[in-house]
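tool_call: predict_structure(chain=1)
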Amino acid sequence: MTARAQLDALRAEASDAAEKRGWKMAEESMKKDLETLASRGMQVLPPPPGLKKDLEEIGQVMLQEWLKKAGNDGQALVEAYRKMK
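tool_result:
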């Protein structure tokens, strides 16, 4: 394995570890925040289906407007993101 390939492998490994650590930290923080809110009498409920649908529609409009400005580079970025999901 070349030095470049070894470096790329190390970067990929570090990146994966950082992503996992980041998601774990975010989940722990969200859990703590929800517990704090609940202890102070606040209820956090899922959004009603109508609101979620409306926000998704607004998001699509905003995405299309942005893609018009971003051009081919923006389209490539969105396509790459969608392939990751």
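agent: The chain has a mean pLDDT of 95. Proceeding to next step.
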